[in-house]
Write a sequence for this structure.
């Protein structure tokens, strides 16, 4: 039983290591990279996918682990990661453990604030993806991100 409990964590590490250096050309590419990290988690997690100018994944970092229904986004921490990795752009992603991938009003406001902050540093917020189980919503595709 103890060994079976270790399988999800081991799988996450395996997928994370296997996908370093992948090119992100679409939301589907981002989903494939992020879903193993978010699937089945019972608390909200916030990840940032850092990209170079050609869309190559420089790093995928967990920036916050929240409660069952809330998580905060630390703009300062995300900006520092982007600068440290020399990222030209980033994709923000988090999960909704409740099972609905529709972004909340707070998600939208936080994303727009982050976009403005990153633009001032010449870093593009490529998208913000909200995951729920195997489904996800792209804020850029839905028009919530300019």
């Amino acid at each position: 039983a103890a060994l079976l409990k270790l399988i999800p964590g081991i799988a996450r590490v395996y997928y994370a290591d296997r996908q370093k250096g992948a090119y992100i050309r679409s939301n589907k590419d981002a989903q494939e990279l992020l879903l193993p990290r978010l699937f089945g988690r019972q608390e909200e997690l916030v990840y940032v996918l850092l990209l170079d100018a050609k869309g190559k994944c420089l790093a995928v970092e967990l920036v916050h682990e929240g409660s069952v229904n809330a998580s905060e986004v630390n703009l300062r921490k995300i900006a520092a990661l982007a600068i440290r990795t020399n990222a030209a752009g980033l994709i923000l992603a988090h999960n909704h453990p409740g099972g609905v991938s529709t972004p909340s009003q707070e998600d939208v406001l936080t994303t727009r604030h982050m976009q403005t902050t990153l633009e001032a540093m010449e870093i593009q917020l490529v998208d913000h993806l909200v995951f729920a189980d195997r489904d996800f919503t792209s804020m850029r595709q839905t028009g919530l991100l300019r």
Summary: The first strand starts at residue 45 and ends at 51. The chain has a mean pLDDT of 88. The helical segments are 2-18, 27-38, 75-84, 105-120. The two ends are 48 Å apart (CA to CA).
